[in-house]
Write a structure and sequence with these properties.
Number of domains: 1
Strand content: over 45%
Number of strands: 11
Largest sheet: 6 strands, antiparallel
CATH superfamily: Jelly Rolls
Structural class: mainly beta
Radius of gyration: 13 Å
């Protein structure tokens, strides 16, 4: 076992200038740090099998869950069960950083809503 950081993790780009780092990537558990610039968002979607927990590290985001919006500040998180449509939106003027923890992994389990 060895430590991991953004500098050593597998990096990917998604959406319009958003970044992700696979801090832990296996079939049972995924931990990703993501960065979303001001004014950007992800596509509304759900996961058939994966449950997710979003935890904000810096910046502020809005998570729309089944048509209801919830604001998340640093140190706040939200659990999204499988099958629940959601969308992360950064309406602030600064980049938001957060963790996305999925069980099982969510890659390959995404359905546009």
């Amino acid at each position: 076992m060895k430590s991991v950081s953004k500098d050593t993790a597998e990096h990917y780009v998604w959406g319009d200038g958003c970044d992700g780092w696979h801090l832990l990537a296996n079939d049972e558990l995924s931990v990703i740090e993501e960065s979303v610039p001001a004014g950007c968002s992800e596509t509304r979607h759900f996961h058939e099998y994966a449950q997710q927990f979003f935890y904000v590290l810096s910046g502020c985001v809005v998570i729309e869950v089944n048509g209801e919006e919830q604001g998340l500040d640093p140190g706040m998180g939200i659990h999204i069960p499988p099958g629940v449509a959601h969308q992360l939106i950064n309406r602030s003027e600064e980049t938001a950083r957060f963790l996305v923890i999925s069980n099982p992994k969510s890659h390959g389990d995404r359905v546009d809503a």
